[in-house]
Amino acid sequence: MGTQRQMGLIQRMFGRKADPATAMQPLYDQVVARAREPHWYEAGAVPDTMDGRFDMIAALLSLVLLQLEPEEEARQESVWLTELFVQDMDGQLRQLGIGDVSVGKHMGKMMSALGGRLGAYRRAFNGEITLDAAIRRNIFREKAAPDAGVAHVEKEMRAHAASLAELKTQALLSGRAPW
Length: 179
Prior knowledge:
By secondary structure, the protein is mainly α. The chain has helices at 2-13, 25-35, 38-41, 50-68, 75-95, 100-125, 131-138, 147-166, 169-174.
């Protein structure tokens, strides 16, 4: 937290504008914290791997974006939230030692994956496909998954979606409201 304040001070001193996407940092941090909860990997049997963690972040970010989607006043915030996801994933790739030449290709795949998951969860919550099918395809990547684990993930995703639906837009955007 102190580092962010210091960076803000430095940016103000040298005339740089603060990145407006940082307003969504608390909400993005909340998404990541929810995605890292042990129950997904224990009771839910989500693989505790880079891919599994990516899949859970993408799933929960999708739920938040779907909640914000019909809200005209939250369009820009949704864009900023997605930008934070991109920045986070870019940083993760670089920490893994993936070089500049390959990062763009990997980021393209990740953005496509997020878009695919967003579409799948939208269809699932609209009743066009089952949430079970969306979870098996997008979290378990169509590999064998225990039914009890898939059921846990489905139950928790439905609970999160219901909690998000109860929140007022500004409360959700604050990143401080429980869901």
